[in-house]
Amino acid sequence: MNQQVQRLAQGGRIDRSRPLSFTFNGQTYQGYHGDTLASALIANGVDIVNRSFKYSRPRGIVAAGAEEPNAVVQLGASEAAQVPNVRATQQALYDGLVARSTNGWPSVQKDLMGLVGKVGGHFMPPGFYYKTFMAPASMWMTYEKYIRKSAGLGRSPAEADPDIYDHFNRHCEVLVIGAGPAGLAAALAAARSGLRVILADEQEEMGGSLLDSHEILDGQPADQWVAGVLEELGGMANVTLLPRTTANGYHDHHFVTLHERRTEHLADCAPASAEGARQSRARLHRVRAGQVILATGAHERPLVYAGNDVPGNLLAGAVSTYIRRYGVVPGKRLVLSTSNDHAYRAALDWHAAGHEVVAIVDAREAPDGNLVDAARQRGIRVITSSAVIEAKGANRVSAARVAKIDIDGFRVAGPVETLACDCVASSGGYSPVIHLASHTGARPTWNDALLGFVPTLVDGVHAAGGAQGIYSLGEVLADGAAVGARVASVLGGSAEPLTLPACEAISESPACALFQIPHEKPTLRAPKQFVDLQNDVTAAAIELATREGFESIEHVKRYTAMGFGTDQGKLGNINGMAIAARCLKRTIPEVGTTVFRPNYTPVTFGAIVGRHCGELFDPERYTALHQWHVENGAEFEDVGQWKRPWYYPRTLSGKPESMHEAVARECRAVREGVGILDASTLGKIDIQGPDAREFLARIYTNKWAKLAVGKCRYGLMCKDDGMVTDDGVTSCLADNHFVMTTTTGGAAAILEWLELWHQTEWPELDVTFTSVTDHWATMTITGPKSRQLLAELTDIDLDRDSFKFMDWREGTVAGVPARVFRISFTGELTFEINVQAHYAMHVWKALFVHGEKYQLTPYGTETMHVLRAEKGFIIVGQDTDGSVTPEDLGMQWCVGYDKPFSWIGKRALTRSDTARRDRKQLVGLKPKDPKVVLEEGAQIVFDPNHAIPMPMVGHVTSSYYSPTLESGFALAVVKGGHDRMGESVYLPMVDGSVHEAEITSPIFIDPKGERQHV
Amino acid sequence: MFQIYCPYCEELREEEEFHPKGQAHILRPADPDACTDEEWGDYLFFRDNPRGIHHELWVHAVGCRKFFNITRHTVSYAILETYKIGEQPSVTAEPSVSEAATATDDVRQGVRA
Predict the structure, then answer these.
(1) Is A232 exposed, middle or buried (0-12, 13-18, 19+ CB in 10 A)?
(2) Does residue A425 sit in helix, strand or coil?
(3) What is the pLDDT of residue A124?
(4) How many CB atoms lie within 10 A of CB A592?
(5) Quick one: closest CA in B to A257, which residue?
(6) Rounded Cα gap, residues A454 and A724, in angstroms
(7) B79: which chain A residues are within 8 Å (Cβ-Cβ)?
(8) pLDDT in tens, A698-737
(9) What is the predicted pLDDT for the residue at A109?
(10) Do residues B56 and B15 lie in contact, with contact meaning Cβ atoms separated by under 8 Å?
């Protein structure tokens, strides 16, 4: 086991009595409870944690929080527990943690791809992928496989996730995001007024910067004040504290998604709770807040200098955090390069830990704040007007090259001194974390005094503390308390003003604007100066992009891939904008900023999905007869959310029928005997009111004025563009009472369609609609023997002259009240029996008892499709696609051209385009080879010898094999098809073969419709 | 995700309960047969796409099934009012500061309800 060589003997918020063992890239290490994976790796002297995305250069840990670009690891001891894209800086250490680098082949220590990085540069300029792999386009898939493999972006598990995840819907008056000094003060101020407050914080512990602060509050270490505030908030019934919870997305109307990691600090799969219950691994809180306070703090900006990606280059603030919070020092000899006073803390902490500070290199001419004085008092060398222009070293920093610089002239202004060291910390100041504010659509504003973008806040959103560029602790606390109180008062709450803890004032000298450090060589020739470490974007790449004419920062971003990584450019974007501004000779606000989008940090898919997976993915609808279908071996088909029997395979001499065999048998039963279909899923809308008949006449294409009680009529429905949208049979139950049937899939949409016209255009019509789809079960018995069968079970007179085709009768069937409709979707003699859903199973079984002697055969949707297509009956949505008029379907018989009201769709039928003679029209197709079943969707041409591209003149909409015709047959739409009866068309297939088919009438069986009238 | 005040239910509800139905106040011509092809084409196919105030038709699809109108700002997505079918919008220009505050009040009341 390795030693924790960089661990301090004391200090930090780790528990040295609780050692934890973990492995990284197969090596076993030890850390302590309270460590992150990153701090434990630093403790063990692990310098290289990854290889970079493009050049495969060795990379080490740079930051201590969400902004970390390099230490992105793959987590998980087992295959099922694999998690990609975990930032080691945010992952709490637990015993048995297993992590690997996501990049590097064959290993991060010895990387063959690194050769590209060494000779790199000229071979991989910005836009490399576009330029190199553009042609031939067909090869991109091949290139991509290898590029992705070597890029190594982590991988998803190959086994099912064993964990469960939850969604929580929450409401609060005040949501406070971030529990640093500003967030704690704001939450306390708001909570004391009695409002419902949610405080969410992404870290393992709440407290933010106060957890590693030097500062004394009310004479005590700052973390004591944190503990006191958390105790008070924790005891309030109106406050919900959510630690380990990242606010990842700010959506419309103060809807914020919070991602709470509940067990990821304990193990890679969620352990059972203390009571032995299963726990969810993560929760997605969907919060609807009244007002939101963003106390998200600020991210330190690194400086851009040559070799700034060699392991051992860190953010100054991260150095402090590792020393003070985790008791680890990331090296022995430090050089600090800074543009501001704040970063001096890193050198002071380093010195206090007993390690050597080689020098503080300050770009300013005469820094003189309290912290600068403190450094000088400790004998630390401070070099002014200078910067680290280059970090030397291969796998670890070995020296810093320091020189005087002329910031305005962007040049090195003096001789270069080389300082031996193993760590270079840098700070270019702070950037407020504006991501969530940016999600609201508000563009941030550049603030010259703060040298950063501050959030623009839409109504109801507030920022406090570092998030709006306030950095000194006393001011941060005061701002947090003031914002909390202000929000409370807006919402009508009030409380005594917060008494803030006493806090020492630290004077700071002003910072200077510093982004990229000049090198002796021009940027394009200097050693690489990285802007975006995760995506390997250099200052030279940005300069090159501007030279190639990319002036918009959004274009520069896309061309160079700056900010496209999983870190969204948290560290690099502003430096990149500053470099683009320098190259374009503009100011940063003129160059503008790019847009941040959800999510702030990657979210596991499990949390997004919650419980909506597996059998709970989508509701399933069952008919009242579902159990019978299951017991009788039906195969099911999904129709919308419904499970419909597809066909009922029988087992004949131990061998189950194929679908083809079952459908052929079911079809013969209907054409020769009697079959039964569960048609309960058809949409049914009950329509009542004195104006119901008038309403139907306006919404349907055909006439309804004279439909008598006891009669049924088929209707076509169009949209006002004249295109068919639904069809079905509507029956007159009483003079002001109708029941409409719709397609199974269209039921909800058609009810909404009827309501739309009634509520918005014709509110004067007295009519109401209600869905009765689930109330009635529909059993269709069809075939020449259906009358004989039904006669055994009903008191309704079934005589062909008294109960005619397209009539309906009320009576009893199998002893229960029923409506029986004599309508047909098969072309055979048919009775559709409707009973209340709870009676359905009784009636269905009674039909089978009596049906045995007629060999009553259940059939499914596949047979239904074959039978209806043989008759040329359309299915809306299959034979139509929203571009088909009633006339295209040859259904002029169903159009009431002379109805008094200009019904929905009528006017459009005479528009020049709708009235064209060569529109695609519904026809039948009979393949020349009867064994051929044409492919549905196959394209149709008139001349198969035409040069490619051939003019396509239509396509197959429905195609089946007909056991009755002993041939394949199809419905299709063909240009001008109604005038082309008997002509041949051709269907070229993907394999090069060409089918020939003859255009026929779409009615293949019983064209006169005699069979349904018997 | 929007939070929408249904003027019939008189409650703020989540967007999941509603369906958007396009631009509001599109009247079907009283005598379609008197329209030219161009006029009918305009009615069928042409809609405004403003940056700013937009009046939209929505339906409380899994609630009361009532259609109603929303005045929404297409940049901020702020819903400035909702009103019943047959009523006219009261917000037809960019809101002043005081109107924006009213919209906030609505959100707040919804949270408390």
Answers:
(1) middle
(2) strand
(3) 61
(4) 18
(5) B1
(6) 54
(7) 253
(8) 999 999 999 999 999 999 999 999 999 999 999 999 999 9
(9) 66
(10) no
Q: In whole angstroms, give the CA distance from residue A527 to residue A540.
A: 10
Q: In the predicted model, what is the mean pLDDT of residues A971-978?
A: 98
For residue A800 the two structure tokens come to: 């062909």
| Residue A176 CB contacts under 8 Å (≥ 6 apart), including other chains | A183, A186, A187, A190, A197, A198, A199, A200, A292, A293, A295, A484
Instruction: Report the 3 state secondary structure along A43-60.
Output: HCCCCCCEECCCCCCEEC
Nearest Cα residue to A968 out of A890, A872, A870, A871: A870
Of A441-455, A749-763, A772-786, A925-939, give the lowest mean pLDDT range.
A441-455
Which sign, positive or negative, has the C-alpha torsion A42, A46, A50, A55? positive
Gyration radius (Cα) of chain A, Å: 37
Among A486, A902, A912, the strongest candidate for a mutation testing the B interface, having the largest count of B CBs within 10 A, is: A902
Q: What is the pLDDT of residues A574-629, one digit of tens each?
A: 999 999 999 999 999 998 877 889 999 999 999 999 999 988 999 999 999 999 99
Q: Compute the distance between CA of residue A216 and CA of residue A222 in angstroms, rounded to an integer.
A: 5
Q: What is the mean pLDDT of residues A273-294?
A: 95
User: If you search the block for the tokens 């809807």, which residue do you land on?
Assistant: A255
> In this model, does residue A101 exceed pLDDT 80?
yes
Percentage of residues of chain A with pLDDT beyond 90: 88
- Whose CA is closest to A37, among A92, A108, A102, A95? A92
The count of CB pairs under 8 A between chains A and B is 84
CB atoms within 10 A of CB A719: 15
The answer, yes or no, to whether residue A151 has pLDDT greater than 60, is no
Nearest to B1 among A251, A458, A902 (CB): A251
What does pTM read for this prediction? 0.89
Structure tokens belonging to residue A669? 């039963």
Provide the 10 A C-beta neighbour count for residue B76: 18
Give A287-316 pLDDT, tens digit per residue: 999 999 999 999 999 999 999 999 999 999
A984 beta partners:
A998
Residue A246 phi, psi (nearest 5): -100, 130
Q: What is the pLDDT of residue A134?
A: 54
pLDDT of residue A156: 87
A130, HSE (Cβ side, Cα atoms, 13 Å): 7
* Residue A701 near residue A684 (C-beta atoms within 8 A): no
Chain A hits for B41, Cβ within 8 Å = 911
Chain B residues contacting A, CB < 8 Å?
Answer: 1-3, 14-15, 19, 21, 27-28, 31-33, 35, 37, 40-41, 43-45, 57, 59, 61, 65-67, 75-79, 85-86, 100-101, 103-104, 107-108, 111-112
Give dist(CA A116, CA A139) in Å, integer.
Answer: 22
Q: How far is A579 from A540, CA to CA, in rounded Å?
A: 9
CA distance A303 to A276: 50
Query: Which amino acid is present at A836?
Result: Q
Beta carbons of A906 and B32 less than 8 Å apart: yes
**Mean predicted confidence (pLDDT) in B29-54:** 95
Specify the length of chain B in residues.
Answer: 113
Question: Chain B closest CA to A67's CA: distance in Å?
Answer: 27
Strands A430-432 and A298-300: antiparallel
Determine, for residues B44 and A721 on separate chains, whether the beta-carbon distance falls below 8 Å.
yes
Tell me if A476 sits within 8 A of A468, measured CB to CB: no
- Is the predicted ipTM greater than 0.95, yes or no? no
Cβ separation B28–A720 shorter than 8 A: yes
Q: How far apart are CA B63 and CA B17, in angstroms?
A: 6
For the segment B48-53, the average pLDDT, to the nearest whole number, is: 94
B91/chain A closest Cα distance in angstroms: 18
Q: Does B8 score more than 80 pLDDT?
A: yes
Among candidates A500, A501, A482, A498, which has minimal Cα distance to A490?
A482
